[in-house]
Sequence to fold (390 residues):
Amino acid sequence: MDDLKIEGSQSTPAIFCDAVHGVVEMRGDSYPENSFELFSPVVAWIERYLRDSGQALMLRLHLLYLNTSSVKIMMDIFDLLNDAHAKGRAVSVHWFYDEQNERVAELAEEFREDCDFPFAISCQADSHA
Amino acid sequence: MREDGELDRRIAALLAEPAWQGHPLRSALAELYGEFGDLVRQLDRIMHISDRFQSVSREQSLSLHERYRKQLRQLEKMARISDRYQLMMRDLNEALKEASLRDVLTGIGNRRMLMERIKSEAARAERTGRPLTVAMVDVDRFKDVNDAYGHEAGDRALVEIARAIRSGIRDYDLCGRWGGEEFMVIMPEVGAGEGLGVVERIRAAVDGLDVYAGGARIALSASFGVAEHRAGTSVAETINRADSALLAAKRSGRNRCEVAA
Fold:
């Protein structure tokens, strides 16, 4: 299975889907003009990974601002993980936030509410490290 | 399914009776009974199909209802999270706006804030016919302070001078750092005479500041140019007149206030 790499911009996060290590990393702000266009390859990659591989999947998120459609897509992705978790797959999310911006942690907690799989939220002194 | 009853048994017995063989009513009855049987079977089938349709549609409606409820929950959550992100942005925006109007070193307003405020105060003065006075402040021989004691001491001196100006003005007045070692005081509702009183107080406070560098007291003073805004003239003209008065104060020996003509 191929990796998926999407370069970040001011309004879109840098995304890297690593098939070997089973890690999806997203970093930055997300307020693209067309969120569905941006994220549909990512959602498809995750669906394919969960279908074709038996390995664990971890999402490492360093997301700051999300617009409404990006919020919707993250919820959809977490739904996918919930379904996979219900079928016994090892899936997890680790959401990092900058100590300068603790409100991101509160938002991550909102996302975590309906998630049954392991979902960690932790402070990183410098999230760009 | 219709169950065989008394009538069915009687008809079957009649049709089997050899005495009625060949009777025209017997053959009609046999035909009629056959058609009746077909109709009953058809009716059963229709009822069966209809029941199945009903149960499928009931299941569909249940699952639609379930999906609707789930989507509603999702929508509510999405709106809640999105609102919080917006709030976060709004607060950040406020903080940025606040920061964009502050001077980083001294914490008082910066030139952008002074320009915004002097324009709106001048417009208000024009509207109400009330006076407005502006003072330009320039620290005397500040380059010498930097050269003798270093920039760090110079910065501390500027912070203390800003504090002295802020403590000297009235509640309605406004002060800010115009740039470098220059400050501005905006005094609404007062003419040049009363403004001069405020400025003279600030001058004395700056003159009395105790700022030390390496154990030595830095001698600090500032010169002031005061100008009352004239109705019908631009803000730039008022600032220029205050600047000219400031220059006059410098030429007359510094550490003093001059009022523009």
In short: Chain B is about 65% helix and 15% strand. The radius of gyration of chain B is 48 Å.
